[in-house]
């Protein structure tokens, strides 16, 4: 065979091999790039990853972790609590990253240096203890509107002062902490869906925000303070757009509560008719627009006496089936199902819920609510509770199964990255 012919055949074989390689399926779990490797990430197939590896974990809601710094200049130190969480190898906490009441949120604009000094300290302490944070940016649907003097439904108006304020707040917080390894995910709001589409469902207080003038709310609420699902969808879209412009990598949760059994019918007909599974999925998609890729549910208000089932789809649905349905529907949208709040009334009740979480394939959940002391009114528990110890056990199970490897994440990103 002549050399030129041999060379030609070799070139043809190389070209064929290259074409076949281009057609080969890409790995489902792409390694994150160096500049966007912080926090939890949702892959294109809906898998939740940490440092490029699938992650399964159960964290704690730590409601007043940052809020206490706004409410009392002599607040109780949170460092001992964070150390106990770290020592128990509970990997993350879910925390409000703004004020609950308008007066608390106002500190951001009246004393910004103090506001961010306290937030910096909280984030830094979590970094030092290697605890991830799911940071909820707007815990209440009304505080921003109250601060700027508009009705609450202006969360659905992109040109409103409410949205201008919200966008600025998001830019300031996300740009400040986007390089911190402690921030594992962003959450837009807390349970906004529960107030949506109740405008034809009776007189106040149904669908009306709180009134407490000593905390900065107006003295009265009116029809324009009720919100629609369209308002919420618009607000989520606007906030998501700002987050993604600064942080293209991390998970974004919508923070929605357990979807009402009639969520879709309230939107379309303003009736309490039970939705089908398909209609539930439609609602889940409406409340997680664009790149909001973690669909939140808060299954805390169980409808029966044992707290292990609820009325939905015109029948009684046990917790195991309910969680399986939610995970399945989220996966169909290639998103993560995040049970952002749940609780246990008894040890047996709680153990069954943990088993249901594992059986459903759910990757992310957080328990309501860890506090420095037990409080039955707010369902808060301390670190000597069975809920705390069972949560630690559940995370140990995930580590034993190779489903949780935070040690592959933290050693690479141990330095503080707040600005």
General description of the model:
The chain has 419 residues and is α/β, with parallel strands linked by helices. The chain contains 13 helices and 13 strands. The chain has helices at residues 3-23, 64-71, 79-87, 102-110, 112-128, 143-148, 161-177, 229-246, 263-268, 277-286, 319-332, 347-360, 386-400; strands at residues 40-42, 48-50, 53-54, 57-61, 92-96, 132-138, 183-189, 251-253, 294-299, 309-312, 315-318, 336-342, 364-367. The strands form three sheets. Strands 8-7-6-5-4-13-12-9 form an eight-stranded parallel β-sheet. Helix 10 (277-286) packs across helix 11 (319-332). The protein is globular, with a radius of gyration of 23 Å.
Task: Itemize the secondary structure elements and their pairings.
Elements: H1 3-23, E1 40-42, E2 48-50, E3 53-54, E4 57-61, H2 64-71, H3 79-87, E5 92-96, H4 102-110, H5 112-128, E6 132-138, H6 143-148, H7 161-177, E7 183-189, H8 229-246, E8 251-253, H9 263-268, H10 277-286, E9 294-299, E10 309-312, E11 315-318, H11 319-332, E12 336-342, H12 347-360, E13 364-367, H13 386-400
Parallel strand pairs: 4-5, 4-13, 5-6, 6-7, 7-8, 9-12, 12-13
Antiparallel strand pairs: 1-2, 2-3, 10-11
Largest sheet: 8 strands, parallel
- State the low-pLDDT regions, or none: 1-35
H-E string: HEEEEHHEHHEHHEHEHHEEEHEHEH
As laid out across the biggest beta sheet, the strand order is 8-7-6-5-4-13-12-9
Strand content: 5-15%
User: Could you tell me the number of beta strands?
Assistant: 13
Mean model confidence by pLDDT: 89
**Outline:** globular
Number of helices: 13
Tell me the structural class: alpha/beta
CA-based gyration radius: 23 Å
What is the helix fraction of residues, given as a range?
A: 25-40%
Q: Distance between the terminal alpha carbons, to the nearest Å?
A: 68 Å
